[in-house]
Amino acid sequence: MLCDVCKERDATVTLTHAVKGEVNVLHLCQRCAGERGIETSFSTPLKNMIADYLPAVQAQTVNAQIESLQCAFCSMKLSDFRESGRLGCASCYTTFDQSLRALLRRVHGNAKHAGRQYEAPAPDLLHEVTALGDLRERLRRAIAQEEFEQAAQLRDQIRGME
Predict the structure, then answer these.
(1) CATH of the domain at 35
(2) Is 11 exposed, middle or buried (0-12, 13-18, 19+ CB in 10 A)?
(3) Which helix (H) or strand (E) segment is 14 a member of?
(4) Which residues contact 157 (CB under 8 A, 6 or more apart)?
(5) Burial class of residue 123, CB neighbours in 10 A (0-12, 13-18, 19+)
(6) Stretch 20-30: mean pLDDT, rounded?
(7) Residue 13 domain boundaries
(8) How many CB atoms lie within 10 A of CB 32?
(9) 33 shares a domain with 67
(10) Residues 139 and 155 sit within 8 Å (Cβ to Cβ)
(11) Taking the C-alpha atoms of 119, 123, 127 and 129 in order, what is their torsion angle to the nearest 10 degrees?
(12) What is the per-residue pLDDT across 86-95, written as a single tens digit (0 to 9) for each?
């Protein structure tokens, strides 16, 4: 695939830009990507390899410790969660807290909920909905048993409540 800008060299960098639901994909060669300020393996100088190696080794050690965590209640491991996508019990949330927060940050951009919160319906509304559901079930049974006079009374009660 050729570079979308110069149309001369092979594109090795894909730049995806999303704004207000509109996604633009731009395929760039190494040179055009460097001109736009995008770091590529060729446009950055070689770094001190030991300075990169030591943090990588430390991260692997920390990752190995996190991977070996196991829930005390259900014996679930983090690798089991990664395979199934489901936690075993409520205690897993505290056991795998650090990994779950990192996952939420990657997926949602934040580990803290910022959206709407569930509000339970008022108790009187809940009672009314339950009673209405009960009347509808009695109406269904009356129609099935061909008790049409009782069904008409139930229908009128339902209309009165709605």
Answers:
(1) 3.30.60
(2) buried
(3) strand 13-19
(4) 135
(5) exposed
(6) 85
(7) 1-45
(8) 21
(9) no
(10) yes
(11) -20
(12) 888 988 888 8
Residue 118 within any structural domain of the chain: no
Nearest to 161 by CA among 131, 137, 139, 140: 131
Q: Is pTM, for the whole model, over 0.85?
A: no
Do 24 and 55 have their domain in common?
no
pLDDT reported for residue 68: 72
Residue 40 sits in the same domain as residue 56: no
Residues 30-87 pLDDT 10s: 888 888 877 766 444 445 566 666 566 666 665 665 667 888 889 888 888 888 888 8
Residues 55 and 41 in one domain: no
Domain tally, the chain:
3
Residue type, 155: R
